[in-house]
Amino acid sequence: MGYLRKLKGETANRISSLVYMGPAIIFMIFLIGIPFIQVIWDSFHTKSLTNPTLKGFAGLENFKQVLSDPLFMNNLKNTVVWTVLSVLGELILGLIVGIALNQRIKGRVVFRSLIIVPWIVPIAVAGLTWTWMLNPDYGIVNYLLVKTGLIDHSVYWLGKTTTSLLAVTFINIWRTFPYWVISILAGLQSIPEDLNEASVIDGANIFQRFCHVTLPGLKNVLTTLIFMHIIWTSVNFDFIWITTEGGPNYSSETLPIMIYRFAMKNYDIGKSSALSVIIIAILLLLFAIVPLAKFATRKIKEVA
Amino acid sequence: MVRSRGEILFSKIATYLVLIFGSIFSIFPFLWMISTALKPDSEIYSTKPSFFSSHFSLKNFVEVLQESDFLTFFKNSFLVSVVTTIIGLIIAVLAGYALSRFGRFKSIKIAGLSLTISQMVPGVLLLIPIYMIFKNLNLINTYTALILAYSTFVIPLSTFMMKGFFDSIPISLEESAALDGASRSRTLVQIILPVSIPSLVSTGLYTFVTAWNEYMFGYVLISDVAHRTLTPGITLFRGQFTTDWGNLMAASVLAVIPVTIIFAFLQRYLISGLMSGAVKG
């Protein structure tokens, strides 16, 4: 690279900047860009994982098949329930614990370290440990719930069609809420203390302070958290696959699990890709709705 | 603070209650995992489970280490995570430096934008095409497949972490090195990297933990025992009909130890990083 030294100024800089950026861009092109184009291409083609002779242009056939799949609506509903309840649970727990951790009390650092624990445990370990704790025969959760009289007899939480999705949601909330606590804590520490004191002097009670000082101060942090977690949760594969594999009888199957099933169990790459494209479209729509909603509320306020 | 005594007392009690319950909620499954791992089978499969036992033993750990493929999985995870960390760090340092110092060029701006977009593409949507690409390249059941996949998904965030740090290093440091005749690559290696050690450590630990904890690509891209990593490995300890929960919890405890140790360090580095304004976002 000795010749680079001879080049003067911006030209040399321009070349070295591209050399530095090169490796990262190569990774993004080959492992994100090309697969992304591939998934869109495959969604319009007949393609099998096991039979290479099955190929050809399929038009919208894959999309038709996915949308008319009797389980598509069920799984879409499961994905929405799983995402909304997870994010809601994480938000509420994150706010309560985050605000508590922001108080000036003894042992804050110890509490904070303990509360982070779920987040460092791999999802596989979290899923297995809770599967064991929720075991219908020997699980500690059922034992405690029966003993305290909250339920009459053991429930197979992860193995019943009515409770499986809720049980996995609960495990997800347990694993993820510490992330919210830490982010909310950082957000709270950026709210100036005198703002709180001024509102106390003005006679605001705890709940008024929460609504008029804390929440507005956390607006940016919460918007980012909610938005990112809607995406992360809706496309999460690990929790559900590790605990229930989408069962029993598809009662906890979400769209990402369905992608896997189409491709790896039915060997239908075309259908699996079409489903991926549908999920991309839904996520892009979500991305578009937020700015649109902001714009609309601003307009309404202007009129009112 | 002009708050009534009653309100202060109430908020103190409420705060402690929340934190105590929050801590128990967080830590209990972890402790239960350890307790199960140490208990003999007769107490694990009891309809009246108890936390403590007078018969705690390391039998489950010995079984896992001697009679299962645990050590192979552990070694594979370690190898994949370490190599991913090294590759990820090198790429993130180079790209982060380019973003920090040459952000004025349009090509670098576009590169930065494409990294931001890449960061938002969910892995599961690309799982099948990545599987097909690796299959065509005969990379299924190789460490290379996992290292490539993991590096790809950590590069964007690692790059932005490094960029944030480089932004805080005064440019005059490099200018004086350039005046002394040092090339840009030499400046980066000899002047910039030595002062970047704290952020190299936190970026590296982030990569290591991400790779160590990853499940989906490990599960799909690897189907032979010799290359299987730890997270899919322990989920396969669960049998079709019966599961040895004592062994499984012992394996879980062992799998968590490295990340726990690392996190003890990461926390320290993150806090010191935040204080020096090095880590942003």
Question: How much of the sequence of chain B is in beta strands?
Answer: under 5%
Structural class of chain A: mainly alpha
Largest sheet of chain B: none
Rg estimate of chain B, integer Å? 24 Å
Kindly report the average pLDDT value of chain A: 89
Q: Please give the largest β-sheet of chain A.
A: 2 strands, antiparallel
CATH top-level class of the largest domain in chain A = Mainly Alpha
* Series of secondary-structure elements of chain A, N-terminal to C-terminal: HHEEHHHHHHHHHHH
User: Which architecture of the largest domain in chain B does the CATH hierarchy give at level 2?
Assistant: Orthogonal Bundle
User: Would you identify the regions of chain A where 5 or more consecutive residues have pLDDT less than 50?
Assistant: none
Specify the oligomeric state.
Answer: heterodimer
CATH topology of the largest domain in chain A: MetI-like fold
Pair with the biggest interface:
A-B, 91 and 91 residues
Order of helices and strands of chain B: HHHHHHHHHHHHH
Number of helices of chain A: 13
Assign the CATH superfamily of the largest domain in chain A: MetI-like
What is the CATH homology-level superfamily of the largest domain in chain B? MetI-like
Number of domains of chain A: 2
Q: How much helical structure, as a percent, in the residues of chain B? A: over 70%
